[in-house]
Design brief:
It contains 14 helices and eleven strands. It is α/β, with parallel strands linked by helices. The protein has two domains: 164 residues, Rossmann fold (3-Layer(aba) Sandwich), CATH 3.40.50; 186 residues, Dehydroquinate synthase-like - alpha domain (Dehydroquinate synthase-like, alpha domain), CATH 1.20.1090. Helix 11 packs antiparallel against helix 12 and helix 11 packs across helix 14. It is globular and about 60 Å long. The relative contact order is 0.10. Bound molecules: nicotinamide-adenine-dinucleotide (NAD). The site of nicotinamide-adenine-dinucleotide (NAD) has 30 residues, from helix 2, helix 5, helix 6 and strand 8.
Amino acid sequence: MKTIDSLGYSIFFQNQFASLNRFLKERSYSKVFILTDRNTGEQCLPVLIAGMPVDFEYDIIEVDPGEENKNIDFCIGIWKMLLDFGADRNSLLINLGGGVVTDMGGFAASTFKRGIDFVQMPTTLLSQVDASVGGKTGIDMDSVKNIIGTFTQPQAVFINADFLKTLSKRQLISGYAEMIKHAFIFDADYFQEVKGIDFDDIDEELIYRSVEIKNKVVTQDPKEQGLRKILNFGHTIGHAVETYSLNRDANPLLHGEAIAIGMICEAYLSYQYNGLKEGQLAEIVKALRSIFPDYQLKSESFSDLIAIMKNDKKNTDDNIGFALLKEIGHCDFNHYLDEDKIKSALTYYQETVSE
Ligand code: NAD
């Protein structure tokens, strides 16, 4: 059995169902609830049930899939179901789904009756390598992502790469952005390995390595007061591109697709202002462009993108905060750059994809 120790709980790999079963026996919860969305209810719940003993007793709570449903209305729905089905303080919520389910389920559990236990069983690549680790729970409000939430650690996380078999290639690639980001910010050797990923059969060892990196960062800085900011590499510009695309494009970019654009721009800023070597910038751009589709970033969008970045809670005054690479495998944070510098990075992206 392979595990990673996190902030008071374990992240289990391999034989996850045996581990879950053992966990349930040890804890003897009064009731077990499984939260799914419609897709994970169809694709993943039967796999979970088949892996558990026949006497495994549970109630199911199902929500509609998608970020647009990660809101207070669905959260109230979850609280009501918990209440109607008689959940008490000794109940457990198993969140079986992508980041929407693990974030919203974590939030619902952390607030119901002042907090009941929950475990994360992430079913997308993004949620396995990122969302389910670190204790951030939350919901969106008025199109502001994760604006309501808590820092609450789960009781355990169970990661099973088999769940990824039913996930679309586009979703897999989106999740990959966070994996390769972990390599860029923390581990040059891992970069060499993760570059060769096979999306048709993702090696659980690569997921393990990625979780190990995220875990090392969040255990040193659980409440994002310092080091944890390096996880934002690619996200200052990437989030703005994601929001912009969501508002404008008929087929908007997925989170990871936008973050890949952000990483190209911020690698350029790292080269300009943080000593990243030109050859490493080229390596990063090549690795990302070999996987992620190019995006037409129009010059007319630059002012809107900057305005979105300025709205971001992480920024002070007129300058915008970045985590930048020093070299592949090493990142630092609290670089504040002005508009012209950011526009030069957006122009760099434009020129790179038009070559
Ligand atoms: P998601 O949960 O919306 O899942 C993407 C889609 O895949 C959904 O339609 C879902 O129903 C479907 N799906 C999930 N698992 C499946 C499977 N095994 N087979 C088939 N379909 C499946 O999105 P996501 O990308 O997993 O997560 C995005 C969310 O994660 C965002 O809300 C983001 O804010 C959050 N997030 C949180 C953290 C954190 O630290 N808490 C970190 C990163 C992202």
